[in-house]
Amino acid sequence: MKKLLYFILIISLNSFSQTVKIDTLHLYKSEQNTSPLDKLIYPIFKTGNKKIDSLINFDLKNKYTYNEAPNSSINKTLKQWIGDQIGYINFNITYNRNNIISFNIETEGCAAYCTYWKSYFNYNTKTGKPIKIDSLLKLNNFKQQILNKKNEQFENEIKQLKELFKQKDIDKNEYDWVYEYLNKCKNDEELGDFSLNENHIEFIETCSLPNAIKNMTPAIDLKYKYNDIREYLNFEPSTKIENYYNHTNHLEIVNIDNESIKIDLMISNEKCAMPNYEGILSKSKENFYEGFVYSDKGEIFESKHHLKIIKNNETIQISSNDSYEKWQLGAFCRIEGKYKKN
What we know:
By secondary structure, this protein is an alpha+beta fold. Helix content is 21%, strand content 36%. A hairpin with a 2-residue loop joins strand 15 and strand 16.
């Protein structure tokens, strides 16, 4: 049996919030074969909360591998599932903000035929649970609009199919075969997978045809810009970001919702021991937020510190219940004080 090697590279894939991080699990089929032609990389999510991490990563592992080994570790399950047939795995993060992570995993496997597919996933990074579309959209009226757009495109595909038959580019058997699949997909009123992106949401219409007629697979486009469907949204897709500065520090505040904010505190003084802190603060009263921030020195969330923020128009005031000694920043570094809005 071939041996799989595992390598972890930590990368940050979210420019708006650094709280959710993604580890890249690199897989090679053998010690000798590390060719990029056999690209096998898989995401591991790090929220800073081990319970949430476990909920997301194990649910993803089981969904992605079709419950290959539901009680086994991620590494063991992937090794068993990949075997000698999976030759390509890659992932793309399409949305990572507002307690939502949306991404897809591309896979190619070869047996009698080589098959490529893309799987879509959406998780709430605050609860660790998969997100259902009806929690993001008011579907009562909007669903029919989606189905109408889908049906219109399938009708166009069927029209083109009839033209091919008319021009004798395909025979009657192939026409009937393709038509049967197109008509079945057209009449399916269930919404399948969806993907959140920076500016739009996309509904994934997968009309799978057998290999012999796969070249006739329809291309159905069901993308909707957030600005065009705001009346149906149950969430705010864009994020308000505020930047504050004092003489050495930069504080970025990301407004999550009415009750919490994410912060990224960057200390510009190179003499400081810990240049970056990040975390989520909860609102205790109007313009008053409190919680904990964490430093990162190559390991995720290594140290924990209390922080309070009071917002006042164009300035904020930062204080902490932790002593100066506990922060261990160095003689020239301070967190507390007044910051001005940029």
